[in-house]
Design a protein that fits this description.
heterodimer, A: mainly beta, two-stranded antiparallel ribbon, 6 strands, rod-shaped, B: mainly beta
């Protein structure tokens, strides 16, 4: 099973730093007033999720490479 | 920016660009031997990591525009034109010909897809996804 969470976002505020998303997969709908199932997939009235992942932002990494034909590189570059 | 700048100097230079902060720079210097002239190659690498705060300031969650470099102070791109003394593209260079390039080692951001293994093909499953920004309480969607 594959879940696309690309459409999920949180309100952005000036100064906010973290975007964190939780993804919970359950065999039962997590809605109010649902009947508590008592089968092999549950513990009492609590429906256990099948999996849970916390997705955190990965930093982007870029590489600047400067190569010369000798060790006397004393130039400059602009970005 | 001097080619022989330290990682700290590169960090300060990049963070001086408007909208960029939270930069971590790691510098590596390599000297390699070659079979032909010039028999040695000298490489300076700056590995630049952009933290999540950089994304916010750039208005982009994840991918950061590629840094563009210039060796002549005129044209900018992912590879600056080779610069050497006397070839018309000299730009503060006191050594042999050199080339500067920029590339993405890893694209930043949050995974947008998740794969769950070991599920029963005949069963119904439900996924709940929630997101937060570290300031407001988390919201479910």
């Amino acid at each position: 099973m594959e879940i696309d969470s690309s459409g999920v976002s949180a309100p952005r505020l000036h100064g906010s730093r973290n975007f964190i998303a939780d993804l919970v997969i359950s065999s039962e709908p997590l809605t109010e007033s649902s009947e508590p199932p008592f089968d092999a997939g549950t513990t009492g009235m609590e429906v256990l999720p099948l999996g849970r992942r916390r997705l955190v932002p990965e930093p982007e990494v870029q590489l600047i490479t400067i190569t010369g034909r000798s060790r006397d590189l004393h130039g400059s570059v602009m970005f | 920016m001097a080619v022989n700048a330290s990682s700290e100097e590169m960090t300060i230079a990049l963070e001086s660009i408007r909208g960029l902060d939270g930069i971590i720079v790691k510098k590596t210097v390599r000297q390699e031997s070659t079979d032909n002239l010039p028999f040695e190659k000298y490489t300076v690498e700056f590995e630049v990591a952009f933290s999540s705060s950089a994304y916010l300031n750039l208005g982009s969650l994840g991918s950061v525009p590629l840094l563009l470099v210039s060796t002549d102070g005129l044209s900018f791109g992912s590879q600056g034109p080779a610069a050497s003394r006397g070839d018309g593209t000299f730009f503060g260079m006191f050594g042999s010909q050199f080339i500067a390039t920029t590339a993405k080692l890893r694209r930043g951001g949050i995974e947008s897809r998740a794969r769950v293994n070991g599920v029963d093909p005949d069963a119904a499953y439900y996924a709940r996804v929630r997101a937060g920004n570290g300031v407001l309480p988390q919201s479910s969607f």
